Amino acid sequence: MSTIQRAVDVGVFIPVGNNGWIASTNAPKVPGSYEHNLQVTLLAERLGFDFVLSMAKWRGYGGPSKHWDVTLESLTTMAGLAQATKTIDIWGTVHMMIFPPAIVAKMVATLDQISGGRVGLNLVSGSNPHDLGQLGLWKPLDHAGRYELADEWIRVVKRLWSEDRVDHKGTFFELNDCMSNPKPSKRPTIICAGASDRGFQFTIDNCDASFFTASDDDASIARGKRAKELAVRAGKPDFKSYGLFMVVPGRTDAEAQARLDRFDAGVDREALATQTAEYSSDVSAKQNFAAQFFIDQGARVSSVLGGTLTGSAESLARRMARTIVEGELDGVTLIVPDFIEDLRFMAEEVFPRMEELGVSTKLGKSLETA
Q1: For a Cys staple, 255 with which of 126, 178, 250, 270, CB 3.0–4.6 Å?
Q2: What does residue 145 show for φ and ψ, rounded to 5 degrees?
Q3: Host H or E run for residue 10
Q4: Please, what CATH class does the domain formed by 6-360 belong to?
Q5: pLDDT at residue 101 in the model
């Protein structure tokens, strides 16, 4: 029995894009539809998950699998899910480059009313030139410029959530006697996945939590510790870090590996090549952690994201718990191949096993029939 006990939140990165996160013609049938995401979210709520998060994606990668060619818009999806749920937190994503801050301030205040205060916001400083460029909304800013825009953007939003009238004339935005009512009932949770030095600093200065990809490796543990160290230096001891884990579970390690092998057997090379080309075309690709992550997936010709964990319930519990405890994580965001059966398996078989490894969650405790 571990002497360390970390109570962590657990959320689901819901599949608002077809195929989920598996670029393969052998991927499970994930349609990227609202009805499916509603089913996933209601299940997650019944199982005891703390939050659901949806990505913002505007253009897919094609190929035989038509990977992410069908995607739901994040905030409108979360509005529907907020109305349909009672307890689970609802976190949407916005690209700050394309959404004016005053528009999002009011949208999130509206979501706050719909959800009864359960709304959160994931901030993204960029994407790739093709994803947003097709909309005519890509701004040719370098890495530093994007975070200058992001700093100004979130300052404006927070002022609109707290002040009666806002005058602002900055580098990127101008507001004249701007009124934004209603105000949120409480400050919405704000997270960001910026992982560069500048991205981490933006996140710590302006957000409640850092959100980054994680596995059972030393780099993931170091990333979690780094977030906490920077937060302490900034005088924010309550700052949280959330690891994004993609897992392929099975009843045995061999079964889990066989599932991954099947996904890789149908890997969509064309979609991955498009994904790599789009992110590589960004002038700041080398400073963009997310870009490098997707470029690396293309280089490995892998159907799944880098660091994906495979294994039985025992193996997954042990591997994830190591990173959570040693990396001092406060939460986990989960990606699975099948967002119904695999979600049940993780909630009922994997996370309860982490108790004896020093990780405490709400999952597996007095579960309703799901």
Answers
A1: 250
A2: -65, -35
A3: strand 9-13
A4: alpha beta
A5: 98
Q: What is the pLDDT of residues 205-245, one digit of tens each?
A: 999 999 999 999 999 999 999 998 989 999 999 999 999 99
Nearest to 158 by CA among 233, 227, 108: 108
Q: 218 Cβ partners below 8 Å, 6+ apart?
A: none
Q: Which residues of 182-191 are buried (b: 16+ CB within 10 A; e: fewer)?
A: eebeeebbbb
The structure tokens listed for 135 are 């909309």
Whether residue 133 has pLDDT greater than 50: yes
Residue 322 burial class via C-beta count within 10 angstroms: exposed 0-12, middle 13-18, buried 19 and up: middle
Phi first, then psi: what are they for 39, rounded to 5°? -60, -45
Bridging pattern class, strands 240-249 and 174-178: unpaired
Residues in the chain: 370
Residue 370: band (very low, low, confident or very high) from pLDDT cuts 50, 70, 90: very low
Verdict on whether the full-model pTM lies above 0.85: yes
Tokens 């909630």 belong to residue? 347
Q: Which of 299, 289, 303, 300 is nearest to 244 (CA)?
A: 289
Non-local CB neighbours of 235 within 8 Å, separated by 6+ positions: none
What does the pLDDT average to over 7-26? 98
**What's the rounded Cα separation, in Å, for the pair 247 and 268?**
19
3-class secondary structure, 138: coil
Could you give the residue ranges of the DSSP H alpha helices within 135-240? 143-162, 197-206, 218-233
Residue 266 in tokens: 């149908």
Chain-centre distance of CA 286, in angstroms?
A: 21
Beta bridge partners of 209: 191, 240
Which of 355, 51, 356 minimizes the C-alpha distance to 364? 355
Q: Using an 8 Å Cβ cutoff, are 318 and 324 in contact?
A: no
